[in-house]
Amino acid sequence: MFYYTINEVTKLEILQEKHGDALFALTESGREYLSQWMPWAPDIKGAEDTKAFIRSTLKAFGNQGSLSCAIIYKEEVAGVIGFHEIDYRNKKTSMGYWLGEGFQGKGIMTEASRAFVQYAFNEIGLNRLEIRVGVENKKSRAVPERLGFMYEGTQRQVEVVNGRFIDHALYAILKEDWKG
Fold this sequence. Notes:
Elements: E1 3-5, E2 10-14, H1 20-29, H2 31-34, H3 47-62, E3 67-73, E4 76-83, E5 92-99, H4 108-123, E6 128-134, H5 138-146, E7 150-161, E8 164-174
Parallel strand pairs: 5-6
Antiparallel strand pairs: 1-2, 2-3, 3-4, 4-5, 6-8, 7-8
């Protein structure tokens, strides 16, 4: 099992079915907020949908295709962070994340993202890491900006969220630029 301690109150654990009920409850309680930015939020109707997602992430992890972790803050599931498809040939991946509304503003996502960047560069030998976020999602954009990612441009109308097309801000960092 992948397990990483960030600090005395925050840790990362590979997503497992044991996280399913708590993760669904977090999704349910923040559905209105999450639906502004996450295209999957309306599709999660019950804990079984969350557990099916978790099983798919475990299968992808087993095939070395991705990594998804629960963010645990003070023993509560606070959100999710993960690498999308890992391209080992070209030594790159993209990263996504979300945090329950009540857990925001505590530095949790910045520290979880920092740990993931370090893991990408130091443990699995990647060279490039990208983060794409909704252009208007200021809180999510602040994470790569705090970590020194370079803004590389805007991708227009790349995702349908809540019935509308949204643009993404593309950020990236190279191993040689990472300050840790």
